[in-house]
Design brief:
Radius of gyration: 23 Å
Shape: globular
Number of strands: 13
Mean pLDDT: 95
Distance between the termini: 34 Å
Number of helices: 10
């Protein structure tokens, strides 16, 4: 059975993409944070063998893509996935699946990226799934300033930070300063005691573990935020907000950014365009105060 243009459009909104030069589809199986159990991977493989062409591709948004599914077999495929606790999605002008690096296990990771990504997935991908936005909205969680997952090329990017603090009384003025040697940016120098050049330091936290006398302590994990990043035909590096935020503040800021996009975004424009149109200072003020959350119900009602 050949699908109509309208059927193809409707299926795309459910995570089924037409395969070029065929009438078959690829199904995108989403993950909450880029993680699947071994059982889920086996089940996805079984679905690919039963309904697709037997292959699975990994997408840049940490979803699984199963190609070669015929239009007539999609209902059975959906039922099979539902019985295994798997689901398709991740397309359209909506909050997209969250991406995160492996900061949960990486030696450089400053926080549990997968746990934060799962919170964002549940609160915003699932919580706002029925709501159409002016365009897609991408979120990325980076575990440290290495930026492996390119947070600043997403609509909303989060980067773990750990601000080093010198305890001058504990510094022994060692001839060879372990923290200085380990600093990848040469941001530590000595003038009797260790000093940190804040203009060079990117809060990666690597120096904190490397003084045997505990002369460099670290505050609790904070997050830097980038907004308005975009990759593709028109590239825009995300603008970094001036503050450092805790997890609760960051989660609220994600929601405020989505609400702002719903309220002030123009149909077909990316969040990057809105940031440029309103101005970074204005957008930062809106994301840092509570007005948008207080207007949440009216903004959502107005978008329906």
């Amino acid at each position: 059975m050949k699908p109509s243009t309208e059927q193809i459009k409707n299926l795309k909104g459910q995570g089924y993409l037409i395969n070029r030069d065929t009438d078959n589809f690829s199904a995108r199986i989403i993950t909450g944070n880029g993680c699947l159990t071994s059982t889920q991977l086996q089940q996805a493989g079984e679905a690919a063998s039963l309904y697709g062409d037997g292959t699975i591709a990994l997408t840049s948004r940490m979803t699984l893509e199963l190609p070669g599914i015929t239009y007539s077999s999609i209902p059975d495929f959906m039922s099979f996935l539902a019985s295994k606790g798997l689901e398709t999605g991740g397309t359209g002008a909506k909050v997209r699946p969250v991406v995160c690096c492996k900061g949960s296990t990486c030696t450089f990771g400053l926080y549990d990226t997968q746990a934060l990504a799962l919170k964002i997935h549940e609160r915003f991908y699932e919580g706002y799934h029925s709501i159409q936005l002016p365009h897609k909205f991408k979120i990325a969680c980076g575990g440290c300033p290495n930026n492996c997952v390119k947070p600043d090329l997403n609509d909303f990017g989060i980067v773990g930070q750990k601000v080093p603090v010198i305890d001058s009384a504990s510094c022994k003025s060692c001839t060879r300063c372990n923290a200085q040697v380990q600093c990848p940016l040469s941001a530590i120098n000595k003038n009797g005691v260790a000093l940190i050049n804040r203009e060079l330091c990117n809060n990666c936290g690597r120096c904190i573990k490397n003084c045997p006398f505990g002369a460099i302590a670290g505050e609790e994990v904070r997050f830097s935020v980038y907004i308005g990043g975009r990759w593709g035909k028109q590239v825009r590096i995300g603008s970094r907000l001036t503050g450092l935020y805790n997890e609760t503040e960051v989660l609220d800021m994600v929601e405020k950014a989505i609400l702002l996009f719903m309220r002030d975004g123009v149909q077909g424009e990316r969040f990057a365009n809105l940031v440029d149109r309103l101005g970074l200072e204005t957008v930062q003020t809106l994301l840092e105060n509570q007005d948008l959350l207080e207007q949440k119900n009216s903004i959502i009602q107005g978008s329906r």
